[in-house]
Amino acid sequence: MKNKIGIIVPYRNRHSQLQTFYKEIVEYLEDKDLHYEIIIVEQDDAKQFNRGMLLNVGYVYAKKLKCSHIVFHDVDMIPVDVDYSVSEVPLHLATNFVVDEGEKDRENFDEYFGGVTMFPIETFEKINGYSNKYWGWGYEDDDLLLRCATTDVEYIVTGK
């Protein structure tokens, strides 16, 4: 059976970015030999943004769609030269993207694990997903990396 990738995009109040992202990612992926689903998970305006919770919801949908791997993908990151081929270990992919309407190459840190990250479904389940406790921006990616480390899950941070 061919691998299927669920590309999960947390979203709120960025309509023009979502339109651009969707158009660009579909064009980019159509040139590749990949079986994929794009899953947009939207949060309303009732509370602060909770990226981790949205990505966990997206994971549930990806599993229902029988995806073998998931890619957590920020809406403001358009791929330039990114390999979405499946990886059997969690893999940080956020290295060569167009960001924020044309700014290229977001700075990468040795331990930065956000923006665009791929997981095999089983590995994401093993680490118990993202924490749902982070409201506002930040820390959910650091927590995810810590979950990998504390469960002895091998991972790859690209762009070191």
Specify the helix fraction band. Answer: 25-40%
Number of helices: 4
Structural class comes to alpha/beta
Q: What is the N-to-C succession of helices and strands?
A: EHEHEEEEEEHHE
Largest sheet: 6 strands, mixed
From the structure provided, what is the oligomeric state, counting identical versus distinct chains? single chain
Annotate the secondary structure layout:
Elements: E1 4-11, H1 15-30, E2 35-42, H2 51-64, E3 69-73, E4 77-79, E5 91-92, E6 97-99, E7 103-104, E8 116-120, H3 121-126, H4 140-150, E9 156-157
Parallel strand pairs: 1-2, 1-3, 5-9
Antiparallel strand pairs: 3-8, 4-6, 5-8, 6-7
Name its key features.
six-stranded mixed beta sheet, three-stranded antiparallel beta sheet, 4 helices
Describe this structure in words.
- With 160 residues, the chain is α/β, with parallel strands linked by helices.
- Helices cover 29% and strands 24% of the residues.
- It contains four helices and nine strands; from the N terminus they run βαβαββββββααβ.
- The protein has helices at residues 15-30, 51-64, 121-126, 140-150, and strands at 4-11, 35-42, 69-73, 77-79, 91-92, 97-99, 103-104, 116-120, 156-157.
- The strands form two sheets. A six-stranded mixed sheet has the order 2-1-3-8-5-9, sandwiched between helices. The protein has a three-stranded antiparallel sheet with strand order 4-6-7.
- The protein is globular, with a radius of gyration of 15 Å.
